[in-house]
Specification:
Order of helices and strands: EHEHEHEHEHEEHEEEHEEHEH
Number of helices: 9
Distance between the termini: 21 Å
CATH superfamily of the domain at 2-163 and 196-229 and 269-281: NAD(P)-binding Rossmann-like Domain
Shape: globular
Largest sheet: 7 strands, parallel
């Protein structure tokens, strides 16, 4: 198939594109920085440089006639500043809508969107943890219009904590890895919040499985559906640190209780989501940490 993957420069989009190439799909990406085009095209990723022209954007879609779009790109901010609102809206609402508009106008068959557990604070049907989560929900609301006027099969995969080698994001696993390697001290909250974390290979596997399902004769049954990419195995943050210590065989210098919980700290992740049919995580936390510490993977 001919598949457009957004967020190619990010952790998940990068790994997903590499995996899809193994299936001999034609993979395309959208870049904002033209200097990166040569880097990805050497890896057989065909690139379009977005110059903010909707006309050029549409021509790109009309020319390539994609079978499907996997939308991984987003602007993620836990606590935004007023000057960052424009980035959140531009990336998570405006760019996403441009993608879906172009997809519908050029008869793209299916569109896999990426959402977040944080759209469900305290396990509610909808309660955004932060503005980031609110923008994710906003795009899903916009997508309802496109689903009603077209035949596109729009599906959302909702992620929580993800991790793995070569992840440059300042996430909990990378913080633990850093202090394990350097012996530095890390101030944390009391650590009583539960974590639902999925290793990158399993995350990628979830997208691949969803793409497989969207090739079936009954793909329309997935239209408008949301699925949770969950480990099904919640551990407290303190317990996660203990597991990390055992795998790394090093003591972590953590000062528990030094920092307060956030105003809308997620103490228990959303657990009412539906799992993708035929998908389940295979990598345990211990195995994932071991791979993270080995860190031998070559970045694209």
């Amino acid at each position: 198939m001919k598949i457009l993957v957004t967020g190619i420069t990010g952790f998940i989009g990068n790994r997903l594109a590499r995996e899809l190439l193994k299936y001999e799909h034609e993979i395309y990406a959208i870049l904002r920085n033209p200097a990166l085009k040569n880097k990805y095209e050497k890896k057989n990723i065909k690139c379009f440089v977005d110059n903010n022209s909707m006309a050029d954007f549409m021509k790109f879609f009309e020319r390539e006639k994609f079978d499907g779009v996997v939308h991984c790109a987003s602007c993620f901010l836990v606590e935004h500043k007023p000057e960052e609102i424009n980035d959140l809206i531009t990336s998570n609402v405006l760019f996403s809508t441009k993608l879906l508009e172009s997809s519908v106008k050029t008869n793209v068959d299916w569109f896999i969107n990426t959402g977040t557990f944080w759209q469900h604070y305290e396990n509610k049907v909808y309660s955004p943890v932060d503005l980031y989560a609110a923008t994710k929900q906003a795009f899903e609301s916009i997508a309802m219009y496109y689903m009603e006027i077209s035949e596109i099969t729009f599906v959302t995969l909702k992620l929580n904590d993800t991790y793995g080698p070569n992840d440059t994001r300042p996430k909990i696993f990378n913080l633990l890895k850093k202090i394990a390697e350097t012996g530095a001290t890390l101030g944390m909250s009391q650590g009583e919040q539960y974590i639902d974390t999925v290793y990158i290979d399993d995350v990628v596997g979830a997208y691949v499985r969803m793409i497989e399902l969207l090739q079936g004769d009954n793909k329309k049954r997935f239209k408008g559906k949301s699925f949770a990419v969950s480990s099904g195995n919640l551990v407290k943050l303190k317990e996660l640190a203990d597991i990390f210590e055992k795998v790394a065989k090093r003591k972590l210098n953590i000062i528990w209780g030094e920092k307060p919980y956030r105003k809308r700290e997620v103490m228990t992740p959303w657990n009412k989501g539906t799992r993708i049919p035929g998908w389940k995580p295979k990598v345990s936390i211990e195995e994932g940490i071991s791979e993270l510490l080995r860190d031998t993977e070559n970045d694209m």
